[in-house]
What does this fold into?
Amino acid sequence: MIETTGSLKRRLAVWLLVTVTGLGVLLMVEAWRSAHRASQQAFDSQLESAALTIAEAVQWEESEPVMEVPAAALQILATQQQERVFYAMLTTDGEPVSANMPFTIMPAWRAQVANEPLAVTTTFDDTSWRLYGREYDSAGWITHEPVQIWVGHTRKGRKALAGELFERSVGHFVAMVLLAGVLMILTMRVALAPMRRLRHLLRRREADDMRPLDTRVPEEMRELADTLDHLFARQRQSRESLLRFTADASHQLKTPLAGLQSTSELALQSADPAQWHTALVTMHDSAERTSRLASQLLSLARLRHTGESEAVELVDLNSVLRETLLDWAGRQVASQHDLGLAELPPEPLWVRADAWAIREVLGNLIDNALRYTPPGSQITVGVKRQGDEALMFVEDNGPGVTYEACHQLLRPFERGGRQGTDGSGLGLAIVDSIAQHFGARLLLETLEPHGLMVKLYLPLYPPPYQPRHENEQAP
Amino acid sequence: MKMLSPLLACRLVRQTCVLVWLLILGSPLSAFASPLVVEAALDREVVAPLLEAFQVNHPDIELDFRDRSTLEVNDLVAAGRPALDVVISSAMPWQMARVNEGYARPVDSPQTRNWPTWAKWRDEVFGFTFEPIVMAYRLDLSKHMLPPRTHADLNTLLSTQHDLLRGKVTTYSPLTSGIGYTLFQQDARYSARFWDLVVGMGRVDAQLESNTRDMLEGISEGRYWLGYNLLGSYAMVWAQEHPEVIVQLPQDYSLVIMRMAFVHRDAPNPQAAEAFVNFLLSREGQRVLAGKTPLFSVLPGIIGPYTAQRLRDQAGERLYPIPLNASLLAFVDPQRRNAFLDRWRREFRRDDGK
It folds into this structure.
C-alpha cells in the first residue's frame, strides 16, 4: 500500500520558505540596526566637526569666555537635510555663556561630558533632537576654566538616511530571495530529473520484463536502483522456479495419467473380466498414487505461497516425534524395515512450529527412507539438544546419495538418481519449504560406510508459562 | 517711462485698498471664523497689488494685513499674541532664528515644491522677493566728482573727497536696523576692506538712518548726496518720481535680500495661511510681484519689469543673494552681534581723534 505524504517539491519549497523567512527576519533586524548605526555615526561625526569648529572660535576676553559662532559650524550642523540647529557654550557650572535655544542640558550629561564627549537623543518641544557635548580647555590670560560646547540638530536626516539604507538592504534581500527561488526551482528540476527518468523507465517496462535496470543514476539514488534490481532479480527467480515447478508438476501428473489411460485402453480391448479386474486394481493403485501426488503438490504450493508466517504455538518436539513414530511403526509400509526411535532427551524441547508441519516433515523423511532403502534397512528417528537449537534427525543405513546430489535432492521431483521408484520426488522439497518457513536449517549428510542422515535444526524457545531461570539452568 | 506704470497702479491701489478691506471685513460671506492675520515688515502700499490679487482669488478669506517694523514682527512671533497666521519680514537672520526655534509650520504644496531650493529652508520659510541692495546719489554729486560705481570707488571717494562729503553720506544704522546690520555683516563676510569703508564713513561723519525711505527723503531734500546700502526695491521706485536721485547697482558685487514668509506654528487659520503663502509663491502672485510691485519676482520664467531674471541680465553674475540657510543664524548670535557692533563703532570712530 503506497501512501502519498506530500510532494518533494512542496517540502523543499516549504523548507526554503521557512529558512528564508527566519533568516530574513534576522537579516532585516540586523539591517535595520546597522542602517541606524551607520546613519547615527555619519551624522554624529557632523556634530563632532561642528563642535570642533565652534571650539576654535572660543576666546577669553578679560575673565569671560567669548565665542563668535562661525557660520560654517551652523551649516555643518544643519547638514544637507536642513535640520533645525542648536548650539550652546556652557561654563563648567552649567551657566550658558551663549546659546541659541533654551535647551536644558541635564547635570548628569554635563558631568559625563567632563570625562568624555557624549552624544544623546532627547526630545525638545515635541521634536526629537540629537545632542553632542564636549569639553574644551581654553587658555585665557586670567582664568583657565574649561568650557563645554553643546551642539545638536533634529533627526530628520538621520531617519531619512537610515530609512534609505534599510530600504536598500531590503531591496537587495528581496532580489536575492527571488533569485534564490528561481535557482531553487531550476535546481529542483535538475536534481529530480534522474528520479523522473527512472519513473519513465519503470513505466515503459513490459509487465514480464524482469531484466536489471539499464540507466544512469546519481549516488543518492544508487541504493534505490540497487534495491529495484534486487527485487527484479528475486521476482525473476521466483517466476522461473514457479514455471519450473508448474512444468514439473504437469509432467509428474501426466505420467500416471498416461498409465491410467493405457491400462484402461488395454482392458477395454479385452473381453476377459479377469483382466478388467487386474486393470481396475492397477488403476486404483495408480489413482491413489496420483491423488497422493496431487495432495503433496498442493501442500507444497500452499507452503510456498503462504506469505507471512502466522503466530504459531510452541510445541514439544519429543511428544510430536514419539506420536509420529508410533503412527508410522504401525503402518503396513514399515513392516519390512527396522524403524526405531533414538533415545529422547529427558526434558521437553520447545520449538515454535505447527505440530502438523513437524508431522509432515517427519512423515516425508520416514516415507523417503522407507521408499529409497532396501527392505531390512535400519531407520532411526531422534531428537537432541544442541546449544540453543534442537536437532531432529532421520538416518538410515541405505545406499545413501552422493555429496553432489545432496543439494539437488531439495528440489521438487528430484529422486537422487533413482527415478525408478514410485515416489513423487516432492518429499524433501516439502521438508525444505517447511524448514524455511519456521526458520529451521535442513542439512543432508552421507554416512560411512553408507547411509543418509537428514538433519533439521530448529531454534529452541523457553517453555511456555515457565520462569526463565529454569531454562538457563538447563545444560 | 516704462517703469511708471506699476507705480501708478500702486498709487491708485493705495487709495482703493482701504475701501476694499472695509468691504471685505463686513462681508457675511466670510468662511473663516477669524480673519487671516499677516504680520509683515513690508510697506502696505508697496505690496497692495499683491494683496488685492489675493483677495480676488480668495474672496472667502478675510485678510488682516498688519504693517510693522522688523523688530516688532520678530517679537510678535515669539509672543504668539495677538494670534498671527503668516509672518513676513526682510530681517532674514531673525526670521531664520524663529524658524529654527520651531515657530514655523511646514507647507507642502505644488507651489512650495516648485520653489527654487536656494530660496527656501525646510519647506517652512520661503524667500519670495529678490531685492537688490544699491547705492543712490544726488545729481549734485556728479558735478563735483565721478559718482561711485563700485565699493572700491566709494572707498576712494570717502578718503579723497572727505571734506566735500562730510555729513553728506548716509547709510543704515547697524544698531537700530536689522536689515542694515545684516547687510554690513554680509559685506564684512565678503571683504575685509569693508572695514576701510566703515572707517571712511566715520571720517565723513556719515549719517545713520534706520530705513531706506528716510535716506531717500534726505537725498531728495539735498541733505545727503550719497546713500550706501539702500533697498533697491524702494530706491528704484523713488528715483522714478524724483529725477534728482540716481540709483547705482554696484558693479563689483551687489547684495540681494529676500523677504521671508512663513506660516506660524500656532496659526489660528492654517489653511488660509497656507493659501496665502501658496499665492505668494504661485506664478500668478509672482507675476503681480513682477508687474505691479518693485519687489522683484524670484521665480524664473515670469515676465515683468521687476524680475530676478531681468536684474541678472542687467547686473550679470554680480548679484549675491544673502544665502537662505543656517549660516544666517550666526548673525543673531548675541556675542557675535556684540562683537560686530563693537568693532563697527570702533572703526567708525577711528578718525575722530584726528
